[in-house]
Specification:
single chain, alpha/beta, TIM Barrel, globular
Length: 415
Amino acid sequence: MKNRNLLLLIIFATVLLSCGSQTEREELYYFDGNGISEEVLSNYLDRSVTMAFYLVPEKPEGRRQYPYHEDDVRMIKNIGAKFIGRSIYRWGGESRLNEPDFWKTAQALIDTLHNFDPEIIFQGCLFEIVTQDVNSVKIPDWVFEGFDLPVEERNFSYDKMLNKRGVMVDHWRKGSSVPDISRKETQLWFYYLAGAYINLGCEAFHLGQVELIGMNDQKRVAWQSLLMKIRAYAKGHARRNWVILDAHVPKGDMIKDGVSLIDFNSFPLRIKEIPEKPYECKLEENYLDALYNKSKGCISPSGWSCDSLPYLVEFDNYGRNGEPNVADTTSHFVWGWDEISWFAQQDEPSRNAWLEYAYNWIKDIDPNGHLQMPVSRMLSCPNETAGSYRANTKSEACPIGYSQEETIKRIWNGN
């Protein structure tokens, strides 16, 4: 009987310890409709990855179907990612939103990972592009209702999203422009995207180059109005009744009247070449427009004050210049390539070492900064990996992997 009671006591103690551990873990990532604390936000940013198009059924023009989603799920579980950045968006091609498969694929992947870890955040993007293809997308009734407008039976209008003076019209190519946030149609479009992604289970949004979109909104009146509506929609529809917003902030903030309109700032890494050491690079405070130690203080959307708003830096993609493999420290191109393409062209040990270097350098130079680990990003350099960098360990399950997965896991675990 003694032994039996001792066994029961051990089992009971084990269960209590397990519950305590679970509760403690949940507190590290807990937020609700009242906002998110600075500590919890930082915990998420410390486990953030760039995973572009993860939720999209990938079949880009001219490329084969992407068959490696199962290995992506395995990798996310393995490394312990908590914030899946850029997981769903359209860069043009808005008519794909009319395809049921676009939404079904995203929902299935979100459900799979939320069943494994309900605290994982998926981020959608509201980018600085709209094309004539948007004319094919019907405006749902709830979008009009969110703006207290009469419900109409119509599609979105590309022309109504453009700057009236022609600023940034055809900026990307003919029929592909930067939408003007001061136009009501642009606000309807972004509200629709945010609401549709919230309905899937997304809890974060990257707003892209807000200064371009805000070309006619210098006082951020239109931005404030739209983001308040998105937060109100989240209050009634998001999984935890809150959405976490960020944007690329070349001025170090998106503040209006002392209050940040976004929860955290973000920016490219701004990698600097070392000209005397071919293809080697470093990070440097005050290099070009780098954000290090320049994220401004404010009152956060959740109500807490800070001397410097937390921020992410990421490996950006934006193409190549006319002189690849040539150093130019006056340009944001890195040895002639965008940041992720430069990184992808290094050998595996160099990629691993540079990730560790960047992570530690940022922690040392500015504790408010966080490195968003590259897990999936479009490439502009010659490659045999379907035009993308992927951190997956190279294997039969993902033969196009670049094998940074275990390095990311090791860095995050402090080993």
